[in-house]
Amino acid sequence: MSERGxxxxxxxxxxxGRRRGLAARTTGTRRxxxxxxxxxGLTAAMVLSAATAQWQTWIGVVLAMAxxxxxxxxxxxxxxxxxxxxxxxCAGFGLVLFAGPALYEIYMKSAGEPVPAVVTSxxxxxxxxxxxxxxALRELGGERRTYEVxxxxxxxxxxxxxxxxxxRVDPLGVLEPRLPDSTDSGGTTDITxxxxxxxxxxxxxxxxxxxxxxxxxxxx
Length: 220
Fold this sequence. Notes:
alpha+beta, 4-stranded antiparallel β-sheet, elongated
C-alpha cells in the first residue's frame, strides 16, 4: 500500500510540473509577442510623427512627444526599467529628428517631379538659436509658381540669385519643393537615412529587451 501511494504521489507531482512548465512557456510566448508588438508599434509611431512633421510641424511635434512619452511611461513606469526607458526616449527623439528629413529626401528624389526654376534671391534670417538661410524660387515653365524654401528643403547656399536649377516638386502638392544637392557634397540622403535606420533599430531593440526583461508582476 505504501509503494502504491508513493507511486501516485510521484505521478501527480510530474503532471503538476508539466502544467507549470506549459504555463511558463505560454506566459513567455505572450510576453515575447507583446514586447515585440510594443517595440514595432512605438517605433512606427515615432517614424509616422516624423513624417507628419514634414507636412504640418505642430501636428508632428505633438505626435512625437506623445509617442516618446508613452515609451517612457511603459518602459520606465510599467516595466520598471529606468535605464532602458532613458535610452529608448533619447533614441526616439533622435529618430524623430533624423527620420523626417530622411523620408522627405527619399520621397522627393524618388517621386518628386523635376521642374526647371530660377533662384530669384537668397537671404538669411535670425532664428531662435542660429541664422537660417532661405531661397526664393520661380518656375521657368508651366504656371511659373513661386516658392520660398529653407534649409529643410536643402537651401544651404549651393545656389545663388540668378542660378537656374532643377527642383523637385511634390506631385501631391503637400510638401515644399526641394533644391538639388551641391555637386561636391554628393547629398546627405544616404547619411540621414542610415542614421535614422540605426536609431529606429536601437529604439525597437531597447523596448523589446526591456519588455522581455520586465520584472514579474509588472505588465505581465
